[in-house]
Write a structure and sequence with these properties.
Elements: H1 20-26, E1 27-32, E2 48-53, E3 59-62, H2 68-87, H3 100-120
Antiparallel strand pairs: 1-2, 2-3
Length: about 120
């Protein structure tokens, strides 16, 4: 007899597209002057890239490299990673009961704390 393997099929709709062309349409790209050393060149080039993904509200800002295009590519890669994490379905939590012994232990701890606090009260009216 053949054993039938039971495979859970989890079909879910991806919230956000990870295609580069779609991401470029959905994001606002801001370019600004990068901070840090650079001498005369620093004030000429806008190498800092800030991306704001409008549907999700995620923002990414990069000024790691001297070249604007390289920073932009890296920013889109980071944005894809963050959106990929948002696209993953969350596993449902299986509710569990607190064992009776644990409940009793918690109650004992609470009683001890309350006794300690009662002992701190001043005797003066």
């Amino acid at each position: 007899m053949e054993k039938e393997s039971k495979i859970k099929e989890t079909s879910f709709k991806k919230k956000y597209s990870l295609n580069i062309k779609d991401l470029e349409k959905e994001t606002d790209v801001f370019r600004s002057l990068s901070s840090g050393p650079g001498g005369q060149r620093r004030d000429k080039k806008k190498t800092k890239i800030m991306l704001h993904h409008l549907p999700s509200g995620i923002s990414v800002s990069i000024d790691r490299f001297r070249f604007q295009k390289r920073n932009e590519e890296l920013a889109f890669e980071i944005l894809k990673e963050k959106l990929g994490k948002l696209n993953e379905p969350k596993e449902k939590r299986i509710p569990t009961r607190i064992p009776f012994r644990e409940k009793m232990k918690r109650l004992e701890d609470k009683k001890k704390k309350s006794e300690k606090k009662k002992g701190r009260k001043s005797l003066l009216p």
